[in-house]
Amino acid sequence: xxxxxxxxxxxxxxxxxxxxxxxxxxxxxxxxxxxxxxxxxxxxxxxxxxxxxxxxxxxxxxxxxxxxxxxxxxxxxxxxxxxxxxxxxxxxxxxxxxxxxxxxxxxxxxxxxxxxxxxxxxxxxxxxxxxxxxxxxxxxxxxxxxxxxxxxxxxxxxxxxxxxxxxxxxxxxxxxxxxxxxxxxxxxxxxxxxxxxxxxxxxxxxxxxxxxxxxxxxxxxxxxxxxxxxxxxxxxxxxxxxxxxxxxxxxxxxxxxxxxxxxxxxxxxxxxxxxxxxxxxxxxxxxxxxxxxxxxxxxxxxxxxxxxxxxxxxxxxxxxxxxxxxxxxxxxxxxxxxxxxxxxxxxxxxxxxxxxxxxxxxxxxxxxxx
Length: 370
Fold this sequence. Notes:
By secondary structure, this protein is α+β, with helices and mostly antiparallel strands. The chain is built from 9 helices and 15 strands. Among the domains are: 1-108, Helix Hairpins; 255-326, Urease metallochaperone UreE, N-terminal domain (HSP40/DNAj peptide-binding domain, Sandwich). The strands form 6 sheets. A 4-stranded mixed beta sheet has the order 10-11-15-14. A hairpin with a 2-residue loop joins strand 4 and strand 5 (176-181). The protein starts with 5 loop residues before the first helix and ends with a helix. Residues 85-93 and 107-112 have low confidence and may be disordered.
């Protein structure tokens, strides 16, 4: 049997850093989360594998052991993972991982209900939508408890055979006794005998809704928007919250770094020699850029308050233009070559700075060899 590859599970390379690992986990965890894949056992197992892979690769010590010795090395160090276990038994551990990436709220109330109050989805935005803000239509799926059985899933119930109706399980180690909530009845002490005909024992149904939200100007990847009372519906009729995780697409020319924006502008070498003023595109129109004589390749020019609006203030970041010096790609004509030669000769010795280095080094080498 081929050994599980955690890097393949997260769809990343072995050289990926922590930020890439976290981003890959966030994307896949949202895709395969049980709240968005009701009764899909394959998605449930995939979700557990994703969390298991993240728990290993996000921890420096575990990742080092895994890279050297594989999963067997992890098992020898006490890590067993989630694969193959009952989902109810591992959800607490998965919930803590999920919260560490997405923040508080997603798994806090698992013990009190069959599913989470709060849910999450990922929203892709174009560069323009994120920079200037927009209105987006959200199509949301959420769970709501069955009204016929009041979320019990049962037409009739019987005592839980695992905990004997106590709602807790006990284990003894020497003279010490440990207790934990029964994962089969979730502490209720009862199990379904006859399934509810309305929900077929699932305890809930899937509802759909569409609503609009305002995307604020300046939002960025990994920012979250909280849509109050758009989460799952509990037996008391109250709903949790929907957390919308933002992912912003890259632009072909503008490169974003927080509230700053970079653009690389090609400039022909004659403009560098002579000095010139050119027009450059910015987020809100055109800007005038004065290029001094002898500007260096990759040199940057900063325009203040021409970048992206800070999310929580009215100020804006910087717009930064980086110069890329361009030279003729085609062969010079006879006339162009003559002009270039005349220009070269007009500088005299300054046009051949390499000769000074050459003469100095040759003299030094002759001295070494004598």
